[in-house]
Amino acid sequence: xxxxxxxxxxxxxxxxxxxxxxxxxxxxxxxxxxxxxxxxxxxxxxxxxxxxxxxxxxxxxxxxxxxxxxxxxxxxxxxxxxxxxxxxxxxxxxxxxxxxxxxxxxxxxxxxxxxxxxxxxxxxxxxxxxxxxxxxxxxxxxxxxxxxxxxxxxxxxxxxxxxxxxxxxxxxxxxxxxxxxxxxxxxxxxxxxxxxxxxxxxxxxxxxxxxxxxxxxxxxxxxxxxxxxxxxxxxxxxxxxxxxxxxxxxxxxxxxxxxxxxxxxxxxxxxxxxxxxxxxxxxxxxxxxxxxxxxxxxxxxxxxxxxxxxxxxxxxxxxxxxxxxxxxxxxxxxxxxxxxxxxxxxxxxxxxxxxxxxxxxxxxxxxxxxxxxxxxxxxxxxxxxxxxxxxxxxxxx
Length: 397
Fold this sequence. Notes:
A hairpin with a 2-residue loop joins strand 7 and strand 8. 25% of the residues are buried. This protein has seven helices and 20 strands. The chain has two domains: 141 residues, no CATH class; 189 residues, no CATH class. Strands 1, 2, 7, 8, 9, 12, 13, 14 and 15 form a nine-stranded antiparallel β-sheet that branches. InterPro entries: TMEM43_fam. One of its GO terms (cellular component) is nuclear inner membrane.
């Protein structure tokens, strides 16, 4: 079946295969059990190491807060602060502007990104399975649409390449230019600090002329197209983004201000190694006090810790579910029993994953905060106790 709805095209493919037998399903389940075991073991590693990382980071931040020295001036380098952790805030500056000669564009900034997109065919796939006449049938609807994409879409992998063929490469490449020398006052930022300047904003092209006869400016894009309003597959459009404005610009405003905490090494700002084993080199946009910077770092550490805890618990839940899937396979020909077993297995996986996750977290805290470790260890038995209390007691004989 084939239909053409404007620029979007669709077709449907139906494939069928015989319903797998009991031994085949059992074999697939055995493979899933092995994957579940690996996922289950990895969850312990993730949860345990995450607690050590979180506590180590928190201790490093507390150490940094107790040692950091706010600089009185950013325009002079004091030898008294050599090797010490310092705090400073000021405007970004670079030695020379960044250029893209191909499009006659320059800007005084820390980074300049050229983003190239090509008009291409994109395949979308929507599948559903159903059982019919003892066979499992899979109905897949393939739809094709033309869109601007930053990466080359390989049309050879399409279900139907005829009529949806894309070029194999772009005539113009994307790139990001970075200033070789970035300063705040008299201090030069390390590569690690420069990497943190990544708040990209799109550059307006309204004040620029068309760079070539075959390039047309439309809004904030340069088009390699005969008709930008009706692009064809293979046409290109180019946009530009900048981060860390390092000079006053009549159209973009004044230079960006940043706050930095790092180790002073001559006129360089480099990573500071804490006693806990972490590295401190912090950069935020705007002017922030020492307390505000470390508060943001603690909040970031907390968010990362909880995100990894959730990922560890989910990995454990999935691992247990896969390892216990064999019980579902053994009764999958009895619909009512199958549904009850499925609910029971999920409840079991939820309770065990919750308990083991809390227990692993408590072990991770054991050498750092024993009292908290004991409390979390006690909480780890709560899900099992609650689950056990839901089971009705055996009748008296």
